[in-house]
Amino acid sequence: MCKTSSTENGDNRMNDLSPKERILRIFNKQIVDRPPVICPGGMMNSAIVEIMNKTGNRLPEGHHDSSIMTSIAEDVYKYTGFENIGVPFCMTIESEVLGSSIDYGSISCEPKIYREAFSSTVDVIYKELSIMHKNSRVQAVAESIYHLSKEHVDVPVIGSITGPISTSASIITPSTFFRELIRKPSYAHKLIDYTADNIIEFAKLMIENGVTAISIADPTATGEILGPNMFREYALRYINKIVDAIHKMDIPVIVHICGNMNIVKKYIPKIRADAVSVDASVNLSRLKQEYPQLTTMGNMSTFLLELGDEQTIHLQTERLLQKQIDIIAPACGLSTSTPLKNIISMTQAVKEY
User: Fold this and answer.
1) Is 217 exposed, middle or buried (0-12, 13-18, 19+ CB in 10 A)?
2) Does residue 215 contact residue 206 with C-beta atoms inside 8 Å?
């Protein structure tokens, strides 16, 4: 649970914490002056159109070119007030490596799956893990992380990866994938395990190049889609496999799960992450009360950030702070049309707290 104080064991420099120190203290359940305010990238991409038009550093070019990717990530950090730098800016890299075709989108539209690689879990062609290292977009992310971590030593660089259920559902026709979780469990387990191994390889490359933390977003692994039994059988098992592998490399992990958690809530404390991020539909204060051991992250409505006014956003941020949420962040992926002034209203409210 987040604790705030001006001192700890005679340490009077709480107010001088760097963004990196602050979030690492949160992960370690140590006292801080206030919560960090972050947006980790990946599914929770904060490369909004207004910033890209302001600077001229744009997507979709930044999905491929490490120099442009680095510049966009720095621009987001500079203009939004978020206290981290996060790459990449989409959720399609892992599925592309594993064979799916990608539509890379535009400045205002994020990449999406154009065609899944396989029609069934039975048809999957399993390749060596080295394919992750050979992909040009993976290399662009690794190079960007290297430069960002060297240039911004006091800022947490967060590497964002897509979770095992969402990635698996992006390389198999989704309707078939969900049926085969029930009808062909041995094939489904083999696929998700393979997917998890490749995701771990991506995380390793990020870690080797200097990330402070890894964020895993698995929006398809929601209780509303899977139900409690399949959430436990597939999502919890393979998310924890990835978390454990990253922890062995001494790097903290954030896990984001979308949707209403009610039917799978009892499994959330079993996720072995250092922080759990949730959607705006979740009563995060109540979740903290029920499971005080959780380090909580979120959960500012992205609809409010896109369509609301600055005063309402400021007040809602203050409510999250008063509820002692450990890390303040958007609840899900930001719309690319989100006004910059609304994001600043959120980040300033945290820094003024």
Assistant:
1) buried
2) no
Q: Is the dihedral of CA 17, 48, 86, 223 positive or negative?
A: positive
Please list the rounded mean pLDDT of every run of 10 residues in the chain (353 residues): 43 77 98 97 95 98 98 98 98 98 97 97 96 96 98 98 98 96 98 98 98 97 93 97 98 94 93 96 91 95 97 97 96 95 98 93
Element containing residue 66 per DSSP (H, E): helix 66-80
| CATH number of the domain encompassing residue 96 | 3.20.20.210
CA 313 from chain centre, in angstroms, equals 22
Residue type, 212: T
Q: Count up the domains in the chain and report the number.
A: 1
DSSP code for 82: -
Domain that includes residue 160, residue range: 14-351
Measuring CA to CA, how many Å separate 271 from each of 65, 69, 193, 268? 34, 31, 17, 5
Is the residue at 196 inside a domain? yes
Residue 7 falls within a domain, yes or no?
A: no
